[in-house]
Design a protein that fits this description.
- The structure is a single chain.
- This protein is α+β, with helices and mostly antiparallel strands and 327 residues long.
- It is built from nine helices and 13 strands.
- Strands 2, 3, 4, 5, 6 and 11 form a six-stranded antiparallel β-sheet that branches. Strands 1-13-12-7-8 form a five-stranded antiparallel β-sheet.
- Helix 2 runs antiparallel to helix 3 and helix 5 crosses helix 6.
- The radius of gyration is 25 Å and the shape is globular.
């Protein structure tokens, strides 16, 4: 099921999904803003093979920029991340999710440069993938991802921001560093929360945990969280996605979970995978040229080594002939 990333100002109707999870989704423009620059989506493939390979994906983006440009950036981010993740050839969510956010960055940056009225636009973007019994996370900006487990509330992501503004955003520069976190094994009754800073400027992880614990459903928790944020001031757009684990399944793709959620080195990871898992379309002409240049350098080294072997062999033949009787 795909929820349209068009910003909403009402709770989103219940979306069809498999019974091992419960989903809550909501967005609100807040008390001050006239438009909603947040965007979000939840997608669960109906096709069994695609579900097995890619799992479910949740994405949130909080746009910024000039007149309506923030809305444009956040919607591009959500749509691009969904499409790029699902179409990426790798079945390793760490690789395909990181690549999807980088593709979204390039798309927004190019769009901003082509349209003067949209220059300077950008967006945060945080995404969860739930495949099998494992959560995968990719992140840029100061939207947040939390895991609520029992009485513990833990922020999975790290804010790329200071009190003066964002340190990283999709579309702000031609390239961006994406945090791809180590996979996290899920447990029954876990809740995974994505939210924009319109919520977290007022409520912390403990507040979110307490409201989730008191709510009958994830959707009811979303509505209560928005109510609390509005009561506290509500000066920004507020968007929340909650994914609650009802049962831990064993019929999805393979788990790659570890015990921590620290950022991982995607380039190092890609280099260790089999070629069938590491193939990808070059992200740009520069990538293609770099690949061709590397292949040329490798070919030159091989030819040079062969030439050296031939010279050494010729020298030894010459020595043998010159030292033989009668020479």
């Amino acid at each position: 099921m795909h929820v349209d990333p068009q910003p909403q100002t009402e709770p989103v109707a219940a979306v069809p999904h498999r019974s091992d999870v419960e989903v809550g989704l909501i967005t609100h423009e807040g008390k001050v803003r006239e438009n909603n620059e947040d965007a979000f989506s939840f997608f669960e493939p109906a096709d069994a093979d695609l579900f097995h390979r890619k799992g479910r994906i949740l994405v949130i983006a909080d746009g910024m920029g000039g007149h309506l440009a923030g809305e444009v950036a956040s919607k591009i981010a959500v749509n691009t991340v969904l499409d790029a993740y699902l179409s990426h050839p790798s079945d390793d969510p760490r690789i395909s999710l990181g690549a999807a956010l980088r593709t979204a960055n390039e798309t927004i940056f190019r769009r901003a440069n082509e349209n003067p009225e949209e220059r300077g636009m950008g967006t945060t973007c945080t995404a969860f993938v739930l495949r099998e019994n494992t959560i995968y996370t990719a992140h840029v900006g100061d939207s947040r991802g939390y895991v609520i487990r029992g009485r513990q509330a833990s922020q999975i992501t790290q804010d790329h921001a200071t009190p003066h503004g964002l340190l990283r955003a999709l579309g702000a520069e031609e390239s961006v560093e994406v945090d791809v976190l180590s996979p996290l094994a899920v447990e029954p009754a876990d809740s995974y929360v994505l939210c924009s800073d319109g919520l977290t400027r007022y409520l912390d992880g403990v507040d979110i945990r307490n409201i989730l614990a008191a709510a009958e459903t994830g959707q009811a928790a979303c509505e209560k969280l928005v109510e609390r944020a509005l009561d506290e001031g509500g000066i920004d757009n507020i968007t929340i996605l909650i994914l609650k684990i009802m049962t831990v399944t064993s019929n999805g793709g393979p788990s790659l979970a570890t015990d921590d959620t620290q950022p991982i080195d995607i380039k190092e990871l890609e280099s260790t995978l089999p070629l069938s898992q590491n193939k990808k379309t070059p992200d740009s002409l520069a990538d293609t040229m770099e690949l061709e240049s590397a292949m040329t350098r490798r070919g030159g080294l091989i030819l040079g080594f062969i030439a050296l072997l031939l010279i050494v062999a010729a020298y030894f033949v010459y020595r043998l002939v010159s030292l033989s009787p009668g020479s």
